[in-house]
Design goal:
By secondary structure, the chain is an alpha+beta fold. Helix content is 17%, strand content 25%.
């Protein structure tokens, strides 16, 4: 069962789009991976946002468009508050949030930021980063955070062994799970799995609607083409780091300040079900960044309330120069 936090549908509208570097889309027969060139000169801002219009006669859910543009539902819902998730209205303009700030981590292996529901893969000996949307653990069965591990094994056509607690949970919905779910396209783990640590895996899914949502029992879910890409390109032993950072910031080489704010993950079911915004924790590192004299504090406050999930220029400069990259 997929649950939605009502806070997704109440976020305010972002006013402008930002753009910086070329977004490269690599196509192959079996996979489509979104690959960005790493920025130069200590920049951490990559990609450019897109805008599309829902076509006349649309019969598709929002997941259809999220899938087409390699983003998760949470990413689209943050950027487009109030949009109909089941049947977007024809003529509606949608921002596709493809611009983002790289996490302030090492550019190595796989970085998973639970708060933004994105996976960052830095292929070894390249100047690229692969960015993929993910689904993560529900309240009570959270995906780990603040954890460094590695890919310990890979499995083609994995089977799924539900725990006793899982089988009991499904019985509430009159569903009986087998002790071992056989491999195949109907398996909730999909067709490929990368096992990290002892209890968790990055794996596919038989329900794409959950990508960008909290739907798993702690593992990380990816769309079929995305997990296939990782399965083919990520070696065993690759470093994997889990973080939970709803706020990302960067000072660009031209002294432009950006902040990217995501809604924090609910820590209780009450928070998840509430219409109220979840309080956002500002770390000492972020607080120090925001105290810079060249930052517009009014814009910071707006970004922290808006939580658009997209980079916003918070530099102290005249409005006519906003979002201009020198």
């Amino acid at each position: 069962m997929i649950l939605f936090s009502t806070s997704f549908f109440k976020r305010k509208r972002i006013f402008s789009l930002l753009s910086l570097v070329l977004l490269i889309v690599i196509y192959s027969q079996s996979t489509i991976a979104v690959i960005y060139s790493l920025p130069k000169e200590k920049s951490r801002l990559i990609g450019e946002n897109l805008q599309i219009t829902i076509p006349d006669g649309n019969k598709h859910s929002l997941e259809y468009f999220a899938n087409q543009f390699q983003v998760g539902l949470s990413n689209i819902l943050e950027a487009n508050p109030g949009i109909d998730v089941y049947l977007p209205i024809p003529g509606t303009k949608i921002i596709i949030p493809k611009q983002l700030i790289l996490p302030n981590t090492v550019h190595e292996g796989i970085i998973i930021n639970n708060a933004e529901m994105r996976l960052f893969f830095y292929p070894k000996n390249t100047n690229k980063v692969v960015v993929l949307p993910i689904g993560i653990g529900e309240v009570g069965t959270e995906t780990p955070s603040n954890w460094i591990t590695s890919v310990q094994r890979k499995k083609n056509n994995p089977t799924w062994t539900p725990t006793q607690a899982m089988r009991k949970e499904y019985l509430k919905y009159n569903e009986t799970l087998p002790k071992i779910f056989p491999a195949g396209p109907n398996n909730p783990m999909g067709l490929h799995a990368l096992y990290v640590g002892r209890l968790y895996a990055l794996h596919g899914t038989n329900a794409n609607f959950g990508i960008g949502l909290r739907v798993s029992h702690g593992c990380v879910r990816l769309r079929a083409k995305d997990i296939k890409y990782l399965f083919d390109h990520v070696p065993i032993g690759t470093r994997v780091q889990f973080i939970n950072e709803p706020i990302k910031t960067t000072i660009e080489p031209n002294n432009t300040f950006y902040i990217e704010v995501h809604n924090p993950l609910s820590s209780t079911q009450e928070q998840f079900d509430s219409n109220e915004q979840i309080p956002i924790f500002i770390s000492s590192e972020i607080r120090e960044f925001l105290e810079n004299f060249d930052i517009n504090q009014v814009d910071v406050d707006k970004a922290l309330r808006r939580r658009s999930g997209m980079p916003e220029d918070i530099s102290k400069k005249s409005s006519k120069n906003k979002n201009v990259i020198n």
